[in-house]
Amino acid sequence: MKIAISATASDINSPFDPRFGRGASFVFVDTETGKWETYPNTAVSASGGAGIQTAQFVAKHGVQAVVSGGFGPNAFATLNAAGIKMFVARDGTVQELVKKLKAGELQEVDAAKRTVGLRHARGGGR
Fold this sequence. Notes:
Elements: E1 2-7, E2 25-30, E3 36-40, H1 50-60, E4 65-68, H2 73-81, E5 85-88, H3 94-102, E6 107-108, H4 118-121
Parallel strand pairs: 1-4, 4-5
Antiparallel strand pairs: 1-2, 2-3, 5-6
Helix pairs in contact: 1-2
């Protein structure tokens, strides 16, 4: 299965980034072969619609699942329409989260959730 995990940098050992739409990078991992590649998130500095743009970005890469800290309503709807499963993580490296996903230790999201807090979701405002 091909998955995408939001990350703070572009490496399999990078710390996980809990932000989906504005996460720095995505590491794409084939869970069967272990091969991986990274891409910067092109929507990280979008003035609006980052969640939708990011969801379209990962869908274009043919993933079957995404691991992040939370998914807003628009990102959830876009990923759901594309048939992409969503899983929530709290911390760890990309490699650790791949292992947790394969072991069935990550919670699958069945509704839009913001688990990173409104401060992050609204661009850091107070």
